[in-house]
């Protein structure tokens, strides 16, 4: 989320007043903790706390960061059995939903007919008895109303979407997250990366997945909004936990080489261009049956017209979103989609799209920053190693 705070501009006296911002269930907690708040995706969200973005970033890398992500959209697809519900979602997404095991979670994308990404989302198959035809969905805040309408308009008669605005969502991320959460939630330490279970947090019913968007080990905790403050207060009272705002959330996900919708991926971008082929399992790549399959099959066979790459600029000047990427001869070959300072890396980092001939690791390029061509190299993603708990009990 490059620059969550919009630039200051002169007010247009003829423009209608802005819509009132929505609040998460933890809005009062953020203010009490001294957060600087700003509009993001229609919500009043914490950008940073008094210690600052750099300290929040480093704390998450070393201990455990607490993130309020209740602005995200939560919902449930409900059908008579897993096969029916999975095939309904597979008609919209390229992931193998049918092959998901109980308790498994997958990352995927909603695609348009041209293979462009309408949104990226997380899908979980619950492990609990009586949930065989249920899939849990988490979509981006800025896209959730469009996503829900898109999904509802394309479901068959035996599957329905149940929106869940009554639920809140928080994330606990960092190397100490498992140790902390295990004190309150039975069984969570035994979860492997991208698995989930229903449990309780000191007696409060919750649904926990071992996942997140920081590159660190961690968890996302879904709970009824009216019980969210109680869970948050317990976690924030732990000396190993500190609240983290949008600023550090963005620098963490950028160092992890993870896409941000509306910046690194959008309705023009295919999963192949975005280096997300790993999220399309072999059966789906072979069988298709999802929107945009012809484009994706062609790009898999022939290569896409552009590729998302990691960029490491020389020097200390960061290249921000929209900066032009140029070849050594000065010819424009792409644009930066995310860029900023990487605290763990210790310097500026960026991601962007370039022509395939310039996408190889080690390729020399330049980034146009304030009219100057700054040397940069293509590097492998992620910028900071992922530290997910790949095995149960890790």
UniProtKB/TrEMBL annotation:
GO cellular component, one term: glycine cleavage complex
Catalytic EC class: transferase
Binding-site residues for substrate, renumbered to this chain: 220
Stretch list, region Disordered: 1-23
Ranges where the GCVT N-terminal domain occurs: 27-282
GO BP annotations, alphabetical order: glycine catabolic process
Keyword set, alphabetical order: Aminotransferase, Transferase
Aminomethyltransferase C-terminal domain location: 306-383
EC number: 2.1.2.10
Catalytic activity: N(6)-[(R)-S(8)-aminomethyldihydrolipoyl]-L-lysyl-[protein] + (6S)-5,6,7,8-tetrahydrofolate = N(6)-[(R)-dihydrolipoyl]-L-lysyl-[protein] + (6R)-5,10-methylene-5,6,7,8-tetrahydrofolate + NH4(+)
Single GO term (MF): aminomethyltransferase activity
A Pfam family annotated for this UniProt entry: GCV_T
Family: Belongs to the GcvT family.
Protein's recorded name: aminomethyltransferase
Name of the coding gene: gcvT
């Amino acid at each position: 989320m490059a620059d969550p705070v919009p630039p200051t501009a002169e007010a247009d006296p003829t423009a209608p007043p802005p819509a009132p911002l929505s609040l998460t269930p933890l809005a009062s907690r953020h203010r009490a903790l001294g957060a600087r708040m700003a509009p993001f995706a229609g919500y009043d969200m914490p950008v940073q706390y008094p210690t600052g973005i750099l300290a929040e970033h480093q704390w998450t890398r070393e201990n455990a960061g607490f993130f309020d992500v209740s602005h995200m959209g939560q919902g449930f697809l409900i059908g008579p059995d897993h096969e029916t519900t999975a095939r309904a979602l597979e008609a919209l997404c390229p992931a193998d939903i049918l092959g998901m095991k109980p308790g498994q979670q997958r990352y995927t994308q909603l695609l348009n007919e041209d293979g462009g990404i309408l949104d990226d989302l997380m899908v979980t198959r619950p492990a609990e008895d009586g949930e065989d035809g249920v899939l849990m969905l988490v979509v981006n805040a800025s896209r959730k109303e469009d996503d829900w309408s898109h999904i509802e308009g394309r479901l068959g008669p035996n599957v329905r979407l149940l929106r869940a605005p009554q639920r809140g969502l928080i994330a606990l991320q960092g190397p100490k997250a498992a140790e902390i959460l295990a004190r309150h939630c039975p069984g969570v330490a035994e979860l492997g990366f991208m698995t989930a279970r229903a449990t309780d947090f000191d007696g409060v019913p919750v649904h926990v997945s071992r996942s997140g968007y920081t590159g660190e080990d961690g968890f996302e905790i879904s709970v009824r909004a009216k019980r969210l403050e109680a869970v948050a207060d317990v976690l924030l009272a732990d000396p190993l936990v500190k609240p983290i705002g949008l600023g550090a959330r963005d620098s963490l996900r950028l160092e992890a080489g993870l896409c941000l919708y509306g910046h690194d991926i959008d309705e023009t971008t295919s999963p192949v261009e975005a280096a997300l082929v790993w999220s399309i399992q072999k059966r789906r790549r072979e069988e298709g049956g999802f929107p945009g399959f012809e484009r994706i099959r062609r790009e898999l066979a022939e290569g896409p017209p552009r590729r998302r790459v990691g960029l490491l600029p020389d020097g200390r000047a960061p290249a921000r979103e929209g900066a032009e990427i140029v070849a050594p001869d000065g010819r424009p070959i792409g644009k930066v989609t995310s860029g900023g300072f990487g605290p763990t890396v210790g310097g500026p980092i960026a991601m962007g799209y370039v022509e395939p001939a310039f996408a190889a690791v080690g390729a020399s390029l330049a980034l146009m920053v304030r009219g100057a061509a700054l040397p940069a190299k293509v590097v492998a993603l992620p910028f900071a190693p992922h530290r997910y708990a790949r095995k149960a009990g890790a």
